Amino acid sequence: MLGLAVGSFLNVVIWRVPRGESVVHPPSACPRCSHPIRSKDNVPVMSWLLLRGRCRDCEAPISWRYPLVELTTGIVFALIALLGPDWTTPLYLYGAAIAIALTLIDIDVHRLPDRIVLPSYPVVLVLLVLASWGADDWPAMLRAVIGGAALLLAYFLMVLAYPAGMGLGDVKLAGIIGAYLAWAGWGQFAVGAFAAFILGGAYSVGLLLARKANRKSGVPFGPWMIAGALLGLLCGTSLWSAYTGLFT
User: Domain count of the chain?
Assistant: First the structure.
């Protein structure tokens, strides 16, 4: 239920933040008829189904992406809760929420807004301290700080070397992703950091082969950074052990 509610709010964030609008005022309204959405029509997923995907007042179609974001956030929150609950749960719930919002915003406008990324630094820092305290694992906190700084620096150097290949939004997001991955472990950090480039590169090659892009086409990299981080968190330990096992 929390995930569904957060997903409903993320829909507002995804639409308004790239446009520089407030996420709290004015209340949500139909973009065609401007009629404010009634409370009974603002229930995640269910309202969209009951309205058959249309505005109650003007019958303008409502994108299927709204209930999909709500449902996805609900499912992801439920899966995270199944892993706990413990002191890491708030850390991963927050990470999941901003990951969903940033992925869709980057796909839509090819930007990772500072209004989401920069405030996430102090929030993630506090949640990392809470998780480290709860797990009594302060070396993990030190790894997170080193990993976040290292990945931030690596992306910054890549931008300096080839400014056209990456945006500053990717650089800023790298620090947060690096902290998450390193807190989990150095194996997760290594796999998650490199997986972003492997996944993003494979997608770009696929677009070139399908002739849906050329070498000068811009491809949002934020979603692949997030996908790589997810792969690192879920499979980093086993993949890194398999890789290092090749040399032992």
Answer: 2
What are the respective helix, strand and coil percentages of the chain, to the nearest 5?
A: 70, 0, 25
Same domain, 236 and 158: yes
Q: Whole domain around residue 181: which residue ranges? A: 112-248
The rounded distance, in Å, linking the Cα atoms of 58 and 51 is 12
Of 27, 37, 77, nearest to 57 by C-alpha is: 37
pTM reported for the whole predicted model: 0.93
Which pLDDT tens digit goes with each residue over 198-241? Answer: 999 999 889 888 888 777 777 899 999 999 999 999 999 899 88
- 29 forms beta bridges with 36
163 plus 215 within the same structural domain: yes
DSSP symbol at 38: P
Same domain, 78 and 120: no
50-59 burial, b if ≥16 CB within 10 A, otherwise e? eeeeebbbee
Residues 164 and 244 in one domain: yes
What amino acid is encoded at 164 in this protein?
A: A
At 29 the three-state DSSP class reads strand
- CA dist 97 and 195 (Å) reads 21
Q: Report how far apart the first and last C-alpha atoms of the chain are (Å, whole number).
A: 47
Residue 127 φ then ψ, to 5°: -70, -35
